[in-house]
Design brief:
Blueprint: E1 3-7, E2 12-16, E3 26-28, E4 31-35, E5 41-47, H1 49-58, H2 76-93
Antiparallel strand pairs: 1-2, 2-5, 3-4, 4-5
Length: about 90
């Protein structure tokens, strides 16, 4: 029983893998999740789907940092410079 329902006027996506109960198991922001007793996901509901999809695409190549690194952004330039330094150190050792 796999069904996908998208309502453009409300921008809602509802994906069902199995029958679900009336109340979701968990609600997180724009997401609602239903799962069974074994922990298998039965359904996913996403409100404002196109906004979430754009955010997902935007953050696809980005890792979220937490703890002391929270809200710190590392640019591609910094990553490339760090790689060059590491390669140089490796060359010096060999």
């Amino acid at each position: 029983m796999n069904t996908i329902s998208y309502i453009p006027s409300k921008d809602e996506l509802f994906v069902k893998f199995r029958p679900v109960t009336k109340r979701p198991s968990k609600e997180i922001g724009r997401f609602k999740l239903w799962w069974d007793r074994e922990g298998n996901i039965c359904a996913i509901y996403i409100k404002d789907f196109t906004i979430e999809l754009e955010e997902f695409k935007k953050n696809l190549n980005m890792a979220r940092l937490s703890g002391i690194w929270k809200d710190i952004k590392i640019t591609d330039k910094e990553i490339k410079e760090g790689r060059k330094k590491l390669l140089k150190q490796l060359e010096e050792k060999w």
